[in-house]
Every structure is written in structure tokens, then in C-alpha cells.
Amino acid sequence: MSEGWQSYVRRIEELAARSGLEFYRVDFEAVPDSFMMEIAVYGLPVRMPHWSFGVRYIYQLIQRHMGHSRLFEVVFPGNPGHAYLAESNGLAENILVTAHVLGHADFARNNLLFRRCQEQVSEHIVEHAANHARQIQQAIEAHGAQRVEAALDAALALEQHVDIDQPLRRERYPEFLVDPKVLTDDQFRKRFAALEPLAGGSAIEVKKRAPLPPHPERDLLWFVANYAPEMESWERDIFLAVREESFYFYPVFASQIMNEGWASYWHARLLREADFIPQQAYLDAIKCHSDVVRPIAAEDKVALSLNPYHLGFAMWEKIVERNGLPAARAIMQQDDDFSFVRNHLTRELADELGLFRYNARSDGQIKVLEHDLTELHESVLAPKYNFGAPIVSASHVRNDGTLELTHDSTVDGRGLDLERSRKVLDYLQRVWRRPIVLTTVNQAGSALELTAP
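^ thats the sequence. predicted structure below, dont judge the formating
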């Protein structure tokens, strides 16, 4: 790595603050490329051990050797934030990355979704995740690696199945049904209602047990942790730790286009205004910026859906140009990718970026196959529904403890990978310790049941 990049960090921070960015302190650290890849795979510098992360690591390694990926930085929002920069970066790359990270830090501190999730989880997620890792190691020492791995298999298989609309720390369901009472909207009815317990003489009130769950429950990690018939406390802790980390990762997933675009907009703007950067480093950084935000087209697919940096950057540039920076900051604070794309990816910009599906003919002419803006929005957003997972809810627990799960394919039109689903059911059944039945549909739309064991 080129020497001297650290000397630019403070000056770029000062420029960012003068330009209106508001961010918590960020700790920058240069690390080996291999460690960068581990961070990217695990999602955190220190995280609970599991074989699935090793599989992801091998995939990332192959992708890099094939030239398909390059990690310049990994940033973790918090107070303070943590940014890890690859030791193989040059001076220009690190100058750009520093500005990019500060854009992320501004976004994470001010975006409402990020703030809500960080307030519930922790602003010190790196340390928090390290505690989870120690907790897992203690469980391994106490209960054996095989049992702990079985619990982690099930929990990590369900890591996307959380309900972000519910609080992180939820109360269990009421055990009994509450009888609806007659509205007491006047004094006479209030007095009569107060006498009601005496009306039956010595009759004994019989409480009716509430169904479990009382409504379809999408937060499978929470539900299993609280209602698995024979789950031990250390297994429950593993499920809740995975759920807690999922709450941390959700805003990153749900605002990727906005967040990467915002950081890219600001690194480009700060580079233009940073007159203290050597000319050659500036030119090299601009080239690096062009590589980061280049469009990626693939035959007749949505052209830029694969590069959130480019799409987000182009959208923020248009918003600032059209409405000004204060309006852009208000959008940044309030939106996620769903509202951002639906409200601000205009037909004009989509045409300009070539986002509509098209087909290039042999004579060189290009034919637009679809020009429906709403359909374009949904094409971009489709992978983001429900944290990228199919919508599966716990619908009923039978008297013998059998868990009934229901897959709702009508909301996002996403089918189930049957092989993966059977594997997930096997993992889950080991901690539920009763039969599990999953109702879904086959390719013909007919009802299909998967069971475990």
C-alpha cells in the first residue's frame, strides 16, 4: 500500500463536514486482502464460527481469481464506525475509499431505518458480534461441537426470516384469549360492567387458551426460540444472537442502492472539491470512480440492476440537480430502496440509462421489449422482498407439537427451491424436535407438502 494515505483522512473528514455530512467518528484500518475477504464473507470482523462461511469464502476466492470481484473496503456503521481498507490499495484508491466511507457514515447516522435498527441492536456491533462468537465458543466447550453446529445450522438457515416491523425485543404471545367486552360508553354501562362478575353467582370463569401462534408469524427465528417444545436455553441464545445480527444487516440489504449511490455521489463530489490531492492521485481516483460506477448490462436483462453503485449514483445526481441537496438529504433520511426506486427512478432517467428490457437485432437496431415503468421498478426490487427470502410463516402448532409452516407465493411470486427447503426443514426439525409440515405449491400451482422427518 502506498504510504501517506492516512495523512489525507483528516483533511477529507474536514471537507466532508464543511460540505454538510454528519457522521460519527470512523476508525480506518489497513488489513491484508485475505482478511478483507474473510470480513466480507462473515459480514463482520469477528463472527460466530460455522462451516457455511467457509463455503462462501471459497466462492469469493474463486470469483476474485477469475477477476470478477475486488474489495477496496468494508465498512461497518456504528459509533464509532469501522472501515477496513485493503493493503493492496494504492494512494488514489484509498483517497477515494475514505471519501466513500464518509458518505456511508453520513447515511448510516441519518437514515431512519439504519438508526432504528442500530438503536435496537447496538452502535457497537463489532464488539457485540465478538461477544456472540465467545458465547458460541463457550457453548461448544459445554455441549460439544456437533450439538452447537446443529443449532447454528438451523438458525443460520433462517437468518433472513425475521420481521423487521416488530421490535427486536418482543414479548411472548398472551397465553389465553381475551373475551371481547361490551363497549362502556356511558355511566350506566360502566356501572353494569362493574357488576358483571357477580351476575353469575359462584360460576367459575373458564379461560380459553389462545391458538399458537395467534396469527401467521413471519419471524421464524423469534418464534422457534420462544416456542420450540424442548429447546435448551443455550440453543435459544444462539437463535436470538443470529436474529440480532440479522436486524443489524437488514438496513444494509434494504437500502443498498440508496446507500452505495449516496457514498458514490459524495466520493465524487469530495474528490472534485479536494484541492489538496496531488493531480496524478486525483486522476487515478477519478478512473477508479469510473470503474466502480460503470453500468453492467447482460443481454435482455435489466441493465443496471447488478450494479447498485451506478444506479444509485445516477439517481442521486438527478435528484440533486433537479431538487437541490437539502431535498436529497430529506430523501436519504426517510427512504429505503423500495420508496427510493418507486418515487425517484423516472422514465426519463430509465431511458437515459438504458434500463428497460431490450433486444439488439442482427442489423444493429435496438428494440425496446418493455417500456412499463412500474414493471421496471418491480424488476429492480423483486430480489429485495422479505430480506431476499420466500415468505414462510409459522401458521399453527398442533397438540402433539407438530409445527405447520405456510409458504405465501402470492405476494412476490417467488417459488421455493425444493432441495434447499428440504434441507432447511431437516435442520429446523433437529431443534424443534417434533414433526414439521411445510405447505407450498408446485410448478403447476397445486398444493404441495414437505415434511420432516
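Confidence is low (pLDDT under 50) at residues 51-68, 198-203, 297-305, 363-368.
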